Structure of Large ribosomal subunit protein uL18:
Amino acid sequence: MANSKRHLFLKRRLRVRNKLRKMNAGRLRLSVHRSNKNISVQLIDDVQGTTLAAASSLEKELGVIGKNNVEAAAKVGSVIAERAKKAGVEECYFDRGGFLFHGSVKALADAAREGGLKF
């Protein structure tokens, strides 16, 4: 397989997830997915295979549909921190997938940290 953008993305995603699996000490995983227009995040318990909390820029309650991705990501990050606290979660691993840690992914992570999540 040639080193296309998709192939490099998949390699990065597998590298990040394998590292998280090796160091997983019973913590949950904060998984991020970013598209060109939206961003979503889930708090996943890999042991039980369940999602405890989720947030997305597509939710009408957040009021970020059609706004700048960085601003929307920051709002989604603060919302997931609130929902994680309601679920009783304070520590997790940040799973950026194959996405680089800058721009909207970084804004989401910073907002989640300010909201009280530790990773």
User: Anything to note?
Assistant: The mean pLDDT is 90. Strands lie at 28-34, 39-45, 50-56, 92-95.
